[in-house]
C-alpha cells in the first residue's frame, strides 16, 4: 500500500510512471546511477541515470529484434561483439545459435553486469553459464578501436542513449571502427532511438547520417517497446554486403527451430516497412 | 508555469501523464465525460471518461490506418458507415476518396461532434464542409440493426473501449448486423484494442473471437499509437470476400496520389505481420 | 473520473497536489498567470504563477488572522490600506468593522479582482457591495509612495511571494513608505512567509530584518494554513506605538460580537508564541 | 536523477509527495508494512502502511510536544509508559529528565524498533543507550490491561492512526485501563489526529469523546507538523488532577535548562488556544 512511483520524462511535459513495490538497489557507479525496482505489471526492472533499460515483461521484444534479425540474414555468424548490453539479454539470444563460437561483451560499467546477475537473472544468467561469452569492462569505443580488422561477423550496439557513457557509441569514429572490425560480410546492428518525441528523433537522425556515411547498406527497422518513450523504437541494420530484406533467408532461420516471443520471419521484412513520416525524417531530416 | 497534469492509468500501476497548459472544456453529457486540453507536445487533445481519444500530434496514425487499409483492398467503395468517430478524423480520411458517395457517421453523443468542431477542427472540420457526410446521433448498435441489407461497402468501427457507451459495439449482435449491412464484398474495420496490458488484451481477444465467428476472413493489423496504452494498437479487418494482403492492390492505391503521414503501401502488408506473442494470443487466447 | 492534478512544489523535492474536477479559467495577464480550479476537498481555488492563493475551504484562516489581530489591538481603525488582496477576503473581514470609514485596496492586476468576482464570490463579493472599498489597480509600492503622511490607521500587506509583481512589497522603500503613510498609532500587518522550507524561511528573514529596521515594534505571529507550504504560516505585526500583546484588548473585541471561524481572543496572544526554532531564526538568522 | 516519489493521500484528492533519493528498506511484518526512505529535504524518513511516521527534519516538533508539555505540569514524573513510539523519539525526550526512573515502551512490532535503530538513530539510539528504558513487544491494550493500578505518573500514547494495529489504542477500554494504571495525579498524553481533513477530524472527535468520558480533565493542544496531513496536528492532555494551563509551572521547567527546538514555555499555554472551528468541533462535533 506504500505509494511509490518511478517516473521517466519522455518529454518535458510527458511522464511515464510505474508504481514500485520496492526498490531493490540504488548505486552510483563511477559512470552512472543504476537502480533496480520491483513492480507488479513489469516485474523487476532497472534504470540507468533514471531511464528504463529493461523490464522483465517486455525485454523480450528488444532482445529478439536486436539479435534475430541479423542472424536471419547472415549465413554463418561465428564471432560476435556486443557493445553495452550489460544486462545480458542480447548475449542470451546470441548464445542460442550453436554456430556462434565467441562472444565479446564490452560494457564500460561492471556494476551493470553484476547487479543484473543478482537481480535480473532472466537476462543475465547466460553471462555466467555460457563459456563462449567473454566479458570486458572498458569503454566500447576504445575496445573496438583496438580490435583487429575483420574480427567479427556481427557487432551489436546495445547502448544507452547518446548522453553520458553511451555518447562515444554514437560517433563517426565508433562506426568507422565497427566497419573495420567487421568481416567483409559483417553486420552492424545499433540501438537507433525513436522517431516520435523530438529529442529522440534528433538522435535518431544524427546516428543515421553517420552510419549511412560509413556503410554502403544502412537500413532502419522498427518494433513495439512499451516501456521505452512512445513505445515506437528502432534498430539500425548496416552492412558492407547484405541487404536485410533481399538477403533474408526465412527458411534457413525457421529450420533452426528457435522459439521466440516477438520475432518471426513474417515480422522480419515487415519491420523494415516504416511509416511515411519516419521514412521522410530519415531521408530528409527534421 | 502552472503545474497541471492529466493522467491515464494504463494499468493500476502504470500511469501516463501529460502536462496541460490549459483545460479547454469539461462536460458531462448523458453518456460520458468529455474533456479537452491543450498541451505543448501533443497540441489539443480530448478524453472521454478519462481516456485519451485523439491528440493533434498522433491522430494521423490512427486515422490513416483505420481508413486507408480497406480502401487499398476494396476496388470501389461508395457507401461508408462510420460507427463512433465523432471527432471526424476517420471521416476526413474517407472523404479524400472521390469515389465515396455517401458517408453515414453514427455517434451516440452529439456533444463529441460539437466539441470537436469547436476545439479540434483538425479532425472535425470535414463534418461541416463535406456534403457526403450525414451525421446521426444515436446508438450505433440500433442504427446498424435498422440498416438495410447490403447497404455499405465499408463499415468503420471507430469506437471507445468496450465500457460504457462503447459496450454494445463489441457484441455478437453488433458484428452480425454489420455483416448484414455490408455488401457481398464489404469490409469491416474495427478498433481492436491492444495486446500488451492485460485488460486491453482481454478485450482484444473477446472482440476477435466474435468477429471470427461472424466473418470468413478476419485478420488483425497493428500500428504505433504513442498516446494509447503501450503504444501498440490494433485494428481488425473482416470481410466476406477480400483478404487484406492477397487482395491488396498497391499500384491502384498509389495511383490515387494521396499524401499520407503514416500509411504507405509497404506498411500495408507489414502491418498484418504480428509479433509471435500476439499471434499466439489471437490463436489460442490468454 | 478524469485524472487531473494541480501540483505545487514546496521545495524541489516536495510536491503538494490537488485533484481538480475542472479548470475554471486560465489567464496570462501582463503581470502573472492566474488559474481557477474546482476541487472536491477545497472547493474553488485559485493560483497565481502556479502557487495557491486562496481556497474556499481554508481562506478563512488567513483572512481572519490578517484582519482581526490588528483590530483587536488598535482602538479605532477608520482608514485602511490593503496592498494586494485582490481576492477580496481581507477586505471582507475589514468591512465587518462598523468603525471603518474608508478602505483603499491596491492590486496591481485588475484581472485578479475581476476573476475572483466571477469565480470566488465567497471572498470577492464585498468588493462590489461595500461602498467603503475603493479599488486601485496599480503598483502598491508606487501607491503608498504617493500616499499622504499619516493617512491610514492600518496597512495590510496581503501580497504574493517576493517574486514577480510582489517583489517590490518586500523592500525597504516599501516599508518606509508604509511607515510614513501610517498615523502615529498605525499598524502594519504583512504576509510574512513561512519558517519551515528553506526558500520560504529565507524570505521570512529578509522581510523581518527590513521591518525591524523601520518600526520600533515588530513582531511575528503564526497560524495554520493547510494549503500553503508546510501549513505553518506567519504574519508580521509592526507599529510605532502598539504592542500586539500588551495593548491587546480582548474584552473590547469580544464586545463587537463578531463570529469568526479561526480567530478568537485566546488565540490572539497564543499566535505570538513561536516555536523555539522560529524565534531563533528571527533573532539570529539562518 | 532517478525520479522516484513517495506519496501520501491526505484525502482522496489531496496528495503529498516527497522525492526519494533511495529506499533504504521495505518490510512487511506480521503487523504492518514498514518502509524507510532517504530524501534531501527531510533526510531519512519512515512510513507505516504508507503513512509518514517520522522524518529527520521535523520529528523534533512532535517529540517535543508529546513529551515536554506534561513534564512542565507534573511536578515529579518518575515512571513513564510509552505506548507505540517504537522510533524512540518520545523515549529520547523523556530520558532527558533526570527524575525519570523507569520507562516502559510497548510497541506491538519489534521490527519498528529494530529498523529505527538501524536507519534512524537520531530517534532510536536512546533505546540502546539508556538503561531506564524497558522494551516490550506486545499489544499496548493488553499491556496496559495487565498493568498494576497507579503504576505510572505519565502515559504517552504515541500511536499510529486508529486503523490496523493502532485501532485498540483508540478504544474506551484502552483509555479506562490507562486511567487505572495512572497515579492519582498522573497524566495521559495521546496522539490526537488533526482537525482539518474530514477523515482525521472524525477520528479526533471519536478519541476526544472517549477520553472526556474517562478523565475529569481532558484538553487538546496543537502544533505544526509539516509532514503530517494539513500540518495541523493535535495531542490530547488528560488527567485526574492537573490542568495543563492552571497547573503549568514554567519557571520550574525553565530551571531544568533543557534545550529544545520546538517547545518553550510561552508556547506551552499558547498550544492550548485552539482556532474557533476546532473548539467548536471538539465541543459540538462535526
From TrEMBL, chains A, B, C, D:
Residue ranges of every copy of the PABS domain listed in the record: 3-240
Keyword Transferase belongs to the record: yes
Family the entry assigns: Belongs to the spermidine/spermine synthase family.
UniProt function note: Catalyzes the irreversible transfer of a propylamine group from the amino donor S-adenosylmethioninamine (decarboxy-AdoMet) to putrescine (1,4-diaminobutane) to yield spermidine.
Gene3D superfamilies: Spermidine synthase, tetramerisation domain (2.30.140.10), Vaccinia Virus protein VP39 (3.40.50.150)
Annotated catalytic residues: 158
UniProt source species: Ethanoligenens harbinense (strain DSM 18485 / JCM 12961 / CGMCC 1.5033 / YUAN-3)
Record pathway: Amine and polyamine biosynthesis; spermidine biosynthesis; spermidine from putrescine: step 1/1
GO BP term (any one): spermidine biosynthetic process
InterPro entries: PABS (IPR030374), PABS_CS (IPR030373), SAM-dependent_MTases_sf (IPR029063), Spermi_synthase (IPR001045), Spermidine_synt_N (IPR035246), Spermidine_synt_N_sf (IPR037163)
Reactions catalysed according to its record: S-adenosyl 3-(methylsulfanyl)propylamine + putrescine = S-methyl-5'-thioadenosine + spermidine + H(+)
Its EC number(s): 2.5.1.16
Protein name: Polyamine aminopropyltransferase
Gene Ontology CC terms, in alphabetical order: cytosol
Annotated positions binding S-methyl-5'-thioadenosine: 32, 107, 139-140, 165
Keywords: Polyamine biosynthesis, Spermidine biosynthesis, Transferase
A GO term for molecular function: spermidine synthase activity
Highest taxon of source: Bacteria
Assembly mode: Homodimer or homotetramer.
Entry binding sites for spermidine: 63, 87, 158-161
